[in-house]
Task: inverse folding
């Protein structure tokens, strides 16, 4: 099973972004979303170091609520 992690873009430099989720920062490659109008504070789903989908803040929050329930289980 593969998981996509919702993360918020903090900074961008070309196709490389610093993204954050739950206090953890990672470098994320934005190349696969080059057709999207991405900017800092946007949310993306990250898998294997690549942003694969732009999502709303509400979708990111809902996803984290589900993940938190799974982890608490």
Result:
């Amino acid at each position: 099973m593969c998981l996509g992690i919702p993360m918020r873009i903090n900074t961008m430099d070309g196709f490389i972004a610093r993204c954050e989720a739950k206090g953890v920062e990672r470098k994320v490659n934005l190349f696969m979303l080059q057709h999207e109008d991405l900017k800092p504070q946007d949310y993306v789903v990250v898998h294997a170091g690549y942003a694969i989908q732009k999502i709303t803040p509400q979708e990111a929050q809902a996803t984290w609520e589900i993940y938190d329930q799974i982890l608490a289980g």
Q: What stands out?
A: The chain has one domain: 5-72. The mean pLDDT is 96.
